[in-house]
Design goal:
By secondary structure, this protein is an alpha/beta fold. The protein has a 9-stranded mixed beta sheet, sandwiched between helices. It has a two-stranded antiparallel ribbon with strand order 7-8. Helix 1 links the parallel strand 1 and strand 2. It has one domain: Acetylglutamate kinase-like (Carbamate kinase, 3-Layer(aba) Sandwich), CATH 3.40.1160.10. The chain is globular. The protein has 8 helices and 11 strands.
């Protein structure tokens, strides 16, 4: 196994499946099955999931809502998604712990770094909810921060596209895919991989990112075992 400890970053929109809003139960179970395969293989798995399928603070701001208020609502949306993925995993017999950056003791643990690492060492999937607990920071930044804190080997960014392209492949049929690309090239070419705060954190801490298609069955396990899938971003 190439990666012993991973942080899997999923977007909230990914959970919608073919729906226009909320959580598609079928897609949720597909993801849970994929995560279970790497868990069963002995990989230590941490997860951060966005909340865009339920609420996006930055969009609410455009509608006139206070940005801070909207961001906190977005953080709560990520906890709903985190609880959904926790329930799906536990239904498959995968031991999990949900930790939140905002205290809500009735449903999850508060985020404590040493506790999170211990859970991983004991073979539990750890899900980090509520972003960083601060407004103005995305779940990309939360994923990067947590990955650095738990000393993950890599961030695996699961998307519906199979890597990073020269342009949006859904709009530009001539777009070509990068197999590997450096942090500096991503900057210079103006490619969107993560928000700039998250991306800079990865670069400064020499934490590689792999962007891959989470919807293709077996991709996650093959990636963890070292197969070249998606696009690798490294120094």
């Amino acid at each position: 196994m190439k990666y012993k400890r991973i942080l899997l970053k999923l977007s909230g929109e990914a959970l919608m499946g073919n729906k226009g809003f909320g959580i598609d139960q079928e897609r949720l179970m597909e993801y849970a099955q994929e995560i279970k395969t790497v868990y069963n293989a002995g990989c230590q798995v941490a997860i951060v999931i966005g909340g865009g399928n339920i609420f996006r603070g930055i969009q609410a701001e455009k509608g006139g809502m206070d940005r801070v208020h909207g961001d906190y609502m977005g953080m709560l949306a990520t906890v709903i998604n985190s609880m959904a993925i926790q329930s799906a995993l536990e239904g498959l017999g995968v031991h999990t712990r949900l930790q939140s950056a905002i205290k809500m003791e009735q449903i999850c643990e508060p985020y404590i770094r040493r506790k999170a690492v211990r859970h991983l060492e004991k073979g539990r999937v750890v899900i980090f909810g509520a972003g960083t607990g601060n407004p103005y920071f995305t779940t990309d930044t939360a994923a990067t921060l947590r990955a650095i804190e738990i000393e993950a080997n890599v961030i695996l960014k699961g998307t519906r596209v199979d890597g990073i392209y020269t342009a949006d492949p859904e709009k530009d049929k001539t777009a070509t895919k990068y197999e590997t690309i450096s942090f500096d090239e991503v900057y210079s070419k103006g490619l969107e991989v993560m928000d700039m705060t998250a991306f800079t954190l990865c670069k400064e801490n020499n934490l590689p990112i792999i962007v891959f298609d989470m919807n293709k069955k077996g991709n996650l396990k093959n990636l963890v075992e070292g197969e070249k899938i998606g696009t690798l971003v490294e120094m």
